[in-house]
Amino acid sequence: MTRRVTGMLMAAVVVATIVVCVVASAQQPPTIKNVVVFKETDKFAGWPANNGLWAWDNEIVVGFVVGAFDDDKRGGHPIKAPQTQRQARSIDGGETWATEKPSFLDENEKEPEPTELPTAMDFEHPDFALKFQSQGEAFYYSTDRCKTWNGPYVFPNFGRPGVLARTDYIVNGKLDLFVFLTSPKDNGREGWPYCARTKDGGKSWELVGWIGEQPPVDGYGYAIMPSTVRLESGGFLTMIRHGGQSDGQKRWWLDAYLSPDEGKSWYLLDKPYIDNAGNPASMIKLADGRIALTYGWRHAPYGLRAMLSDDDGQTWSNEIVLRHDGARWDLGYPRSVQRPDGKVVTVVYFNDASCKERYIAATIWDPVAPIE
Fold first, then answer.
1. Where exactly are the structural domains of the chain?
2. Which helix (H) or strand (E) holds 54?
3. What is the pLDDT of residues 331-369, one digit of tens each?
4. pTM for the whole structure
5. How many CB atoms lie within 10 A of CB 260?
6. I need a surface site. Which of 10, 51, 60, 327 has the fewest CB within 10 A?
7. Which CATH number is 31-365 given?
8. Where are the extended beta strands (E) located within 70-205?
């Protein structure tokens, strides 16, 4: 009996050591603070990356979905109807949050039908925000920091089977803006990302270029959810979420693409290639010119990770572990912004061992590269 117990203890020590070594090898920044953005009993709150994050100095707004928690569901995302949209606002740099109902929802939590944009948007308005419907050919915009939304307004599908939109855009001037979206593949399934542009404040749009080759239409595979920054060279760098099949096994990862010509052509880069078991990335340009990349981590230990680049994405720091306390894989979908004091606020949906619920959380961290 003694030998058996000792063996079990040794096995437990080995497992614990492996987890500690995995986390330690990635390292952590000097200070990390995790706060709850939205959490309710028997609710599933999720997917900030689908709904958008905007910031004006220390005022931050994030969108997300809220639904009933499905106790009977054993796989996938345990969410059921009724589902609706909410947003949360912080005026102190992400330290505290208040939940709001988006102005575009009526008393029945419904969105109106899209119409044509009546007047051009001013993308350089100091309180501007743009939001795309995650499932639909339409967008909203705000000029009062998301307190009220105008729209929805029709967005073209460029002759494709539809639009699988996320909020990812780069302002290029008062009436000039690039957006990075996803179309279904030729077979109607997700997905194939692309760059589009307007030069007249959203009155008309042009398809600029496809990001990478179309994933297989006769098998499993997708490329979706770009997150994009403009480089010092003027080009674009984007991270794409991929799913595919290799040797009969499904796998999920992140890839980087570079466009030297404002979205017309795109080139797959060797790095960063991130095997995170399926989660989109968020990439932002920091005030000092570096790039901060954050992404959910769906391998055990589940959580949130980051990398930094100080040379326009040519090389990257060691991986930074921001959180590793997730209870299960169902988490992530980050969006990040930088505060005036230099700290980064990364908002995700999360779960931990203390409860069944999925909730919206913010991680506030210093973008300090780990020692090589």
1. 31-365
2. strand 53-56
3. 999 999 999 999 999 999 999 999 999 999 999 999 987
4. 0.92
5. 14
6. 10
7. 2.120.10.10
8. 79-90, 98-100, 129-132, 138-142, 150-154, 169-171, 177-184, 190-198
